Every structure is written in structure tokens, then in C-alpha cells.
Amino acid sequence: MKLFYPLSPILSFLFLSGLQAQSPTWSGEIGCLIYTHCTTCHHDGGIAPFSLTSYDEAYSYRYQIQAYVNAGLMPPWPPEDGAYTIANDRSLTADEIALIDAWVDADAPEGDPAEAPAAPEISSEEVIADPDLVLQLPTYTSQAVDEDDYRCFIIENPETTTRYIKSIEIVPGNPAIVHHLLLYADGSGTPALLDNLDPGPGYVCFGGIGSNSATLLGGWAPGAQPVTLPENMGIQVFPGQDFVIQLHYPEGSAGEVDHTKINIKYSDEPSPRLVQFSPILNHFTTLVDGPLFIPANTVKTFHEEYTIGGQISILGVAPHMHLIGESIHTWAELPSNQIISMLDIPEWDFEWQGIYQYRNPIILPFGSTLKAEAVYNNTTSNPNNPSNPPQNVSLGEATTDEMMIVFFLWTAYQTGDEMLEFPDKPLLDVPDCPLLTADQEVRPDLQLTLFPNPTDDRLLVRIDSGEEMTVRLLSVTGQPLRIQQGERGTAELDTASLPAGVYFVEVQVGDRVLNRKVVVR
After folding, report:
1. Which of the residue ranges 307-321, 391-405, 459-473 would you say has the lowest mean pLDDT?
2. Cα(207)–Cα(188) distance, rounded to whole angstroms?
3. Beta carbons within 8 Å of 228's beta carbon, 6+ residues apart
4. Among 166, 155, 157, 315, CA closest to 235
5. Is residue 111 located within the same domain as residue 128?
6. What value does the mean pLDDT of the chain take?
7. pTM (2 decimals)?
8. Both 328 and 366 in a single domain?
């Protein structure tokens, strides 16, 4: 289930209750919010247009900060809150935005400088210290004068046997101009032909790499952490497949030089569990109301669906559209008719697409149907429309074309996948702000106890605050099985008739929600 909390407990309890009496300060609350949510991009040499590494800098941009966070534009986090927790959520909660509003409205007081958090160190150290393979891209000078520059580079795969990637680390050569990167494996030879037709290093590539048979391996955007799979899992790369890297350099970066590289670590297991990054939903084979064609001055909605032939564990999802795309929603319909929302992006932004990894896998039983709905706005009301006046738009790779693809990071289900967990990693390590960079399941202000766990027939649920609460027992797919109102912080659930397995207990206290796993024997 989606874990979504307003604020760290100390901020919420000590400060929000007294906003009328005392305004937030940089030293007390705001410094930590800025450092943990903004500074990963807003620092010298970062992709953002200005730095936020001190009180003075934040004060200078206080009105811009307030305007952008209230508009939902910063920090960039397109997904809506859903049923499942996405790792490394960059978004601000409503209470955190309220803190920023109160701070700016009070003319952004500094507070006691001696109590201010130290600015985080922007480290250039690489996480994978001993990579098995380093993909060094050629030195490239951005051509992005008054429009973005999308460039693809090909690197030959030196391996002569099939390998399984466990971890991928993207190391931007010039973080100030690398907006995002996508890494593919492709054996069609098409990218090489496109490269030969382009006189410069690499070749121009906007919507994709030019090959329909390419496999997405991973990606990067500012603040992203290396994707690391469990030791017994890996993404397969065959000998003869080339590595193709798409880089996005933003408008205005012309003349800047980049030399990005990629560190790859392979699984040590001889036959690890195969993890695939597949375009299961796509505009070629699963579009049910195609073709993908949006006439000028129209808004059209398209749907894709695919029924899976086995039980699978979904680890992540990555939708892809171009500039006409306005929104996209992906969900699963189970044989029981239960619907699981997997990712909902109500305001698509091509420049902030990404790969969203779940904190816990979504388990889909045999016969489940994956579905997607995308809306395309080909009118003048779409500020991202590349054509003025609007022109007819159809399927293709160019800036003025469109796509509808949803990649899924998945593996065949094995017993125990419900217990897998991919913990949050802070965008930046800020030692003076531990509560805002801690694992989001740790909430010292609301301690949840389940006893006994594992359980046989009855489960005692208790919170130490003694408040009224609503307790739900959920299946691993999020289906409510038991609902109990608890008074004085205590409730008891009957589990005697439940099949043995893993379940989730969801406790709601006011606007706070906690989740814990429980095992029924």
C-alpha cells in the first residue's frame, strides 16, 4: 500500500501545531526541507538554473520557491499517490508546502544560525567502485541552442556470453547539462545504420533510439540512485546486442561539453532469476482502439491491454509518450475483478519521465490484465504542442510524432516475493536532517505493534498514542479482508479462517496511515 505521511514527527508535532504563534525558520524546519528535496538539482554545477545550498540563496529565491511548490512544478514528481509506494518519492506533502508558505509569508526568517543544518556535500564519488563493465561515452558538445538536443550513442557489447545485470550506475560527465538518460540493449543493427548516417558523434534521436526491438535496461534523471536488484536477480543482455544510450541535453546548453559514463555490475549467480524490462503495453500489439492518430485540433483517448499468462511480480513501471501526451494511467484488473492502480500521471511532462520502482513488488495472479489509458491533446491549449497551428499527429519517432508505451520491470513470481522490499534511498545524505532522509516506515511519533507476528487465529493491533483508529487487513494485492474500528489505540483481528500466507495491516489514525506485514500460519 502507498505510505504517505505529512511530515516527519518532530516537524509535525513541534512546529505545525504552533504556526500561528511562531513562524517556521530556516534553521528550524525549512533548511532541511530544501536540502532534502531541492539541493540535489539546485547546486553549483547542477541541472537547475540556480543554487539552493544556503539560507542566503534560498532567501533570494523565496518567492520562486513558494510559487513553484504550490503549483506542483517543484520538486518534479509527476505520479499521483497510488495504492503502492514508489521508492525515492521526491514530492512534498501538503503540510510541508504549508510550512514553506508560512515561512515565505513571514519574510523567510533565518532563526538561530548556530542551529541551522549544514549544507549537504555534493559528492562525485561513484557508488559502484568495482564495476564489471564501464560504458564510456564519447566526448560530446551540446547543440541545444533554442531547442533540446536528444542524442544517441552506441557502444559495442564486449561480452561473448549472456550476462545478467544486477546494478546500473549513471555517472554524468557534466551534471549541469545532462537532463536524463535511457540505456537500451539492441541487436537489430538499426542504431548503427542511423549512426553512420549522422556525421557527428552518435545520432539524433527524440522519441526512442530508432529500433522497435530494443530492450530498456535502465535510466537516470537528476537525483536518481543506482538501480540495484537482489543478488539472485538480473536483467539479461545477450552477446551481439549493442548498448545504446539516449541522452537529453536541455535548451540553452549549446557549447557545453559532456563525457558521461555508465558503470555496470553483473550478478555473481550463474543462473539468476530473470528480470525483464518489457514494453508489455505498446502501440503495436496491445493498442485496442488504434491506430495512434490524433487529428489537429482534437483531444483523443487511447487504451492498451494485455492479459498475462502466468503469475508475475512487478518491480517497477515506466510509461513513455511524446509532447502531445497529456496524461497516462496504468492499472491491473485481477481475475477477481479487483483493480490495482499501478501508476497515474495526470499531467504528463516529457522532460520528467522516469522509471518508477516500487518499494514492494505488486503480485499479479495468472489471468490478470494490464491496462493503460492515455490522453493526447493536439490543440492550442496544450502548451507543449510542437506545432502551431496544430498538425495531424501519428505514430513515429520524431518530435512531432507520438508513442504510447508502458515498460514493466518484472519477474516470474516465486514464493516469498511478497516480503521483498526495496528501501528508499535519500536523494542527498544530509546528516543534520536524519528524519527527512530516513526510511519512511519508521515513524517514532506513532508506534505500531502487531502481536503475535506470525499469528495463528487472532492478531492484536495497538498504537501507543491511544487514539481512535481504523484497522484494515489487506491481501498482498491490496484487497480489504477485515475492517475493524479501534478505540483507545487497540483493535483485535480474527485471522483464524485466513489461508496461511503474507498479509498487510493498514492502520489509519486521522490523516496518518501506517502499514506493516503480518504472516498468518
Report:
1. 459-473
2. 18
3. 166, 167
4. 166
5. no
6. 86
7. 0.72
8. yes
